[in-house]
Amino acid sequence: MAISAKVTLGAGLTTTIRIRDFTLIADEPLEDGGANLGPMPTELMLASVGACSAITVKLYAQRKGWDLQGVEVDLASDRVKREDLPEYTGDGDTIRTFLQRLRFIGNLTDEQKARLLEIAGKCPVHRALTDPKYMVETLVEGIIAGEATP
Questions:
Q1: Which residue in 8, 21, 99, 125 could disulfide with 76, CB within 3.0 to 4.6 Å?
Q2: pTM (2 decimals)?
Q3: Three-state DSSP class for 101?
Q4: Has residue 28 got a pLDDT over 70?
């Protein structure tokens, strides 16, 4: 299933995001030149990972008939220098780190919790960040691709 969003830059750094029947605002904090009218795009990305992880484990637990009554996800991200992350084996000088801490609420065994943690790492948003990617960026003049002409 293809998904889509339309983002329009407004005044300053404020963007309006349209997804299906929903409108969201993204912005930067005042100290970074924004108007602080909404979360930063990177915060929206973290929220997407957390929401996707919670939904994915809930659906998995339901399918298995497990007593998962709730999920809490706490996320953080930072950029660190290569020398501050000795286990990193890639080429970058700076690395984007992600910390996702999950709490499963319900009558679950340690084995079920371990499996749910594994499943959380397989949610579609997590995979979009970690699997091989192919980004196509195209400059268009006039209308945006997919819009009807007037």
A1: 99
A2: 0.84
A3: strand
A4: yes
Strand ranges for 48-107 from DSSP E: 67-81, 94-107
Q: At what angle do helices 41-64 and 110-120 cross, to 10 degrees?
A: 140
Residues in the chain: 150
Q: For 39-56, how does the pLDDT look when each residue is reduced to its tens digit (9 = 90+)?
A: 999 999 999 999 999 999
The rounded distance, in Å, linking the Cα atoms of 29 and 34 is 5
Under CATH, what is the fold of the domain 40-150?
A: GMP Synthetase; Chain A, domain 3 (3.30.300)
Closest CA relative to residue 130, chosen from 86, 107, 97: 97
Contact 42, 31 (CB under 8 A): no
Round to whole Å and give the CA distance between 17 and 23.
6
